Amino acid sequence: MPAQPSRKAPAPTRPDPAGAAPGALRADARKNREGILRAAREAYAVDGLDVPMTAIARRAGVGPATLYRHFPSRVELIGAVFAEQFTQCVAAFEEAFEDPDPWRGLCTFLDKVCTAQAADRGFGAAFLGQFPGVVDIESERDGAEAGLARLVQRAKDAGQLRQDFDPSDIILLLLANVGLAGQSPHVSPAASRRLVAYLLQSFRAGQTDPLPPPAPLTLRQIPYADGQGPR
Q1: For 133, how many CA atoms within 13 A lie in the half-sphere containing its CB?
Q2: Which residues contact 7 (CB under 8 A, 6 or more apart)?
Q3: Which of 4, 10, 17, 45 has a 20 to 30 Å separation from 105 between CA atoms?
Q4: Model pTM above 0.85
Q5: Alpha-carbon gap, residue 80 to 74, rounded angstroms
């Protein structure tokens, strides 16, 4: 008969899978997981995606072992933190396509994306594919660029968007907006809305002054909010 384990010896533990449904975890484990996600979301919003895992653990009030038990890698943590926002961005595309007014659909989509980009440094980097492994970068970029081109063409076909507008002009808008992510929460949303409103007025059909040729920009040209380029 095997010897009984010592009462002082800790029971063996198994890592909680990062993708496990929160309801499948014990109450204390679920509380720790939610605290880690909350701490990471707050840290990434202010400081971007380079926040060390140990700093997130301290912010959440847990030890590094607990953090890694829930999220074995930083990529898995970032994916979990921004899963809801990724879903919201997909929904924003769908809502824009379904809007019977192509111009309104395009404007609403750009306003939502730019507001999210200005409010959260981490999400801007993750959504735009600047953190390898968070999403399938190439497919996300290709899908986003195809969606943007479709929104642009709809508005052009409706005679609402100036005919010399190029989809790369949206990248110019995002490049201009990304610098607002480092501002205070009281400044960045208002500044982003005003910037987007200014530019949308110039995008609308009826603006007859000719533009220089479009720049050869893609989503790969969007840098981190902290000024660093793609990794």
Answers
A1: 9
A2: none
A3: 45
A4: no
A5: 10
Kindly tell me if the per-residue pLDDT of 54 is higher than 90.
yes
Alpha-carbon distance 82 to 127, whole Å? 8
- The residue ranking higher by pLDDT, 205 or 139, is 205
Q: How far apart are alpha carbons 13 and 34 in whole angstroms?
A: 19
Average pLDDT over residues 12-18: 43
| Token pair of 6 as six digits | 């010592």
Q: When comparing pLDDT for 71 and 127, which is higher?
A: 71
Q: pLDDT digits over 108-139, tens only?
A: 999 988 888 888 777 766 655 544 455 555 56
For residue 80, is pLDDT > 50?
yes
State how far the alpha carbon of 190 is from the alpha carbons of 117, 197, 201, 203, in Å. 13, 11, 17, 20
Round to whole Å and give the CA distance between 66 and 86. Answer: 26
Indicate the angle between helix axes 102-119 and 137-157, nearest 10 degrees.
140
> Which residue shows structure tokens 């440094």?
121
CA 14 to each of CA 4, 9, 63, 65, 72: distance values in angstroms, whole numbers, following the listed order? 21, 15, 16, 12, 12
CA distance 181 to 117: 7
